[in-house]
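Recap from last week: sequence in, structure out.
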Amino acid sequence: MTTPQNDSHGGVRALVDYGPLALFFAANFLVPAETARAIVAHFTPMLSTLKQVEALLLARVILATAVFVLASIVALVIAKVKLGRVPPMLLISAGLVIVFGGLTMYFRDPRFIQMKPTIVYALLAAVLGFGVATGRPLLQQLMGSSYPGLRESGWRRLTLNWVWFFVVMAFLNEAVWRGAAVAVGLQRGWDLWAIYKVWVVIPATMLFAIANVPMLMRHGLTLGDDAPPVPPEG
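Predicted structure tokens:
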């Protein structure tokens, strides 16, 4: 049975993994463009030299990115306080949000934050792939307690599955943000990418994790009351 403490930690993990992305989505779509421009203009005069349409788009990008960066920092603090440690995948993802989000705001270019997931996916695929090639069970070291009973063959198969998943997601992220910008323009392309991040990436990641369960059970996994863990989004 799942203890109340584990339930609480599961809620904290979900909050720190997906909370910043949810706030990014809310800031981008729920804050009116004029309000976003007023907020950004209060802190910097960068919008004064732009045309109205460009200023409105950039204001939404800057505001949503700033919320994403601040929420990621808060997520790191919450993870440290509530969980006693910062999970490595969260540290990588949040760290890149802070770096690429800062570059987006500094250079007034949304492409930096849009490229961040590609970097995360490529890095994860490379690290896990290197572990498989060198016989180092990196995924097992990170998530071993979450898959009780899983044999070495299962860990190897699971790791390879996630490597290919991350490779595909890296290509998809590049295709979506670049293709959308070309097909429908920068403003609508930014919105389509934000929608893709929340409503495609998260469900796809969860479904992929669940789809691995039958294979894992054939390799010794024993299931309790908890759902299979899902790595954070890019």
